[in-house]
């Protein structure tokens, strides 16, 4: 993708960072050099991580109006999906007139494919189309493509919804293994992978694994000083810790309640209240 490398170079120098320091944990020094001298970057995830380190918005360095348009649209779609408005998100995606397959930026196409898949699946229960989008995203993605890994994880959701738990397990496990192989800093969106997979392992009564995965999601939030899905992760952590422990009389939902109240997650608060009522009998 075409980017404004002069902005990145200028801000890097203002912050007195060398190219090696800026690249540390994200990419190679050569990638930074290509960004600044040739105004190109092949990975949206790498560019996003660089921008965050420099305290720049991603949109401020993109040099392609169509890419900016799609990026802004996908940011809105992501916000809608995070509040379970998948049908509304799908409507926005269908209004897009730009062909993302024409972009040099493959990560943007993979992100679009993931959201087409998840909105079809959770908005309309359209497993046929969602499978196509998720498989295509997995095919295009590389080791550091979080949206490709999210697509693999979502294949687990598809098969879980179809009650094909053995197949679901394959894709949930694969997504966790792919996270481990990332060579850039793990993005906060990996939280969703930890949560989905923890929930699945809880379903199949592997409470130890579910607890471990939910805990990893909470640790990722701590690293980013974030509240991303923290209410749901706190619930999974407390529930699975209770189910795997012989000495707990009731789950410790105190953190889950606090985060759910903060996020105004009435659905989760109802689930917790129902759990506590059953356990009190």
TrEMBL record:
Pfam family name, one: HTH_3
Residues of the HTH cro/C1-type domain: 8-61
An example molecular function term from Gene Ontology annotations: DNA binding
InterPro entries xref list: Cro/C1-type_HTH, HTH-type_regulator_Rgg, Lambda_DNA-bd_dom_sf, TPR-like_helical_dom_sf, TPR_rpt
Name recorded for this polypeptide: Cro/Cl family transcriptional regulator
């Amino acid at each position: 993708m075409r980017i404004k490398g002069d902005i990145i170079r200028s801000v890097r120098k203002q912050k007195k960072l060398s190219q090696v320091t800026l690249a540390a944990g994200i990419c190679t020094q050569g990638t930074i050099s290509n960004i600044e001298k040739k105004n190109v970057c092949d990975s949206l995830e790498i560019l996003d991580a660089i921008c965050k380190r420099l305290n720049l918005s991603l949109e401020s360095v993109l040099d392609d109006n169509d890419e900016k348009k799609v990026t802004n649209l996908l940011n809105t779609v992501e916000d809608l999906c995070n509040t379970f408005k998948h049908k509304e998100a799908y409507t926005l995606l269908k209004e897009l007139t730009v062909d993302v397959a024409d972009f040099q930026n493959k990560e943007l196409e993979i992100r679009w494919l993931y959201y087409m898949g998840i909105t079809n699946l959770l908005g309309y229960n359209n497993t046929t189309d969602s499978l196509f989008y998720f498989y295509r995203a997995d095919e295009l993605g590389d080791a550091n493509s979080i949206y490709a890994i999210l697509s693999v994880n979502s294949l687990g959701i598809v098969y879980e919804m179809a009650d094909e738990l053995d197949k679901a397990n394959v894709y949930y496990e694969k997504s966790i293994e792919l996270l481990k192989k990332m060579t850039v800093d793990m993005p906060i969106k990996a939280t969703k992978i930890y949560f989905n997979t923890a929930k699945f392992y809880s379903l199949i009564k592997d409470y130890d694994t579910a607890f471990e995965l939910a805990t990893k999601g909470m640790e990722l939030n701590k690293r980013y000083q974030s509240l991303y899905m923290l209410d749901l992760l706190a619930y999974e952590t407390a529930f699975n810790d209770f189910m795997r422990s012989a000495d707990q009389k009731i789950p410790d939902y105190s953190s889950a309640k606090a985060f759910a109240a903060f996020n105004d997650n009435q659905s989760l608060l109802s689930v917790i209240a129902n759990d506590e009522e059953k356990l009190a009998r």
